[in-house]
Write a structure and sequence with these properties.
By secondary structure, the chain is an alpha/beta fold. The chain has helices at about 5-20, 20-30, 60-70, 105-115, 135-140, 145-150, 180-185, 205-210, 220-225, 230-235, 275-285, 290-295, 305-310, 330-340, and strands at about 35, 45-50, 50-55, 85-90, 120-125, 155, 165, 175-180, 190, 195-200, 200-205, 245-255, 260-270, 320-325. About 35% of the residues lie in helices and about 25% in strands. Helix 3 (about 60-70) packs across helix 4 and helix 11 (about 275-285) packs across helix 14.
Amino acid sequence: MLTRRFLLQVFLASALSMHLGGGSALGQVFFRPRKRAAPRGRENLFVQGDKALIGIAGGDTVEDMVAGAVSLIGGFERLALRGKTVLVKPNVVSGRPHPATTNPEVVGSVVRLLYAGGAKKVYVGDMSALMTLSTKRNMRNNGIKAAAEDNGAEVVTFEDHDWVEVELPGTMFVKSAYVTEWLYKVDLVVNLPVIKTHSSATYSITLKNFIGCTHLKQRPYLIDSSRWEEIVAEFNAAYTPDLNIVDGTVSMIEGGPWEGTPEATNIIIAGGDRVGCDAAGLAVIKSFGKWRPVVNKDVWDQRQIRTAIEVGAGSPREGLKLVTGEGDEKFTELVKKIKEHTGL
């Protein structure tokens, strides 16, 4: 009997044939990684007492906002960057400009600040969605490739490299994850998503951004298309980023993931806790009242959030502390709404 999953795999093979050539497509669908590793766990360095810090900053320039948000939670120095290699993982789902993808100005600013902090080598890497490959072409079209390279980073595209199998104990829908080897080739990982809405996963911020690190064979629609949010969160049990820097310069507040309604929100969110960063980003979307899957549900009732807490990929509300900078009237009003919607 032909199952829905089998038909989706056939579709995946056909689509990969268009992008990768017919000879390698079936191999991509039915392969298994040759390497195995434990989940890439990391201690959250951006804490105060027993609270994970989430910083929100505005500013006159993108670099001011990035530096300000990270400073609010303790600064880049907490990463002890001197002599280390760093992978920066933006959202490059396609070649479309931000907010469908991460703002190239944010990418460039993060790369510069990492080098200024003493990083030895910075890489900027991702893998685009199946129907939009190649990633390198997309990075060229949306400006991320130039922003990375102009500031001294090396661009890597995960589809051109090996994969590692990571067992995920305690999960319900995903028992093992096939993740890019780049998570294990560098000292530090900086997660660099954009705030946006998503027609299948409800929203896409720090948790959803990790899907670009997983193999095409394991995209949520191939596992269970009715459980996108739980699957996204469960995959995050495979790794812990050392720092999340969320691009809220322009946010997508309706539609997505390919295109939607943009809104100039002019903030950067930073933290070591993915749930905390997602909660703040969700509150940004919620404050505009346009995207019903977010507007009609409490931030803490979102399935991505609840599942991430269950699998240990983030902290509950009582384990988080919001720290905000100063700004103009628009910034102050947005921060007020973030606090109201998150209870932080």
